[in-house]
Design a protein that fits this description.
This protein has one helix at 31-44; strands spanning 5-9, 15-18, 24-28, 48-53, 59-65. It has 76 residues and is α+β, with helices and mostly antiparallel strands. It has one domain (5-66). It starts with a strand and ends in an 11-residue tail after the last strand.
Length: 76
């Protein structure tokens, strides 16, 4: 299962990590913190796409996060 996330500015300040739903997955004070949190979420959910938006809401960068180590996929 892949997970896509967007790092977007919050109109009330700070930055949100958003998936497909209307609620933010996370809220942080800085964009760097939001990017780190988004990478962790995507990695934990098996990889996906990260889109980073600027203050105007335009995509400024994209990154593909490779699948993480899912303990359920370990043989044993």
């Amino acid at each position: 299962m892949s997970s896509n996330r967007n790092v977007v500015p919050n109109p009330n300040g700070g930055w949100d990590v958003r998936g497909g739903g209307s609620r933010a997955s996370a809220h942080t004070d800085t964009q760097a913190e939001a990017i780190d949190r988004a990478r962790t979420i995507i990695n934990n959910q098996g990889g996906g796409e990260l889109s980073i938006h600027n203050r105007q809401g335009q995509v400024r960068a994209k990154d593909t996060i490779a699948p993480g180590n899912d303990p359920e996929n370990v043989k044993g």
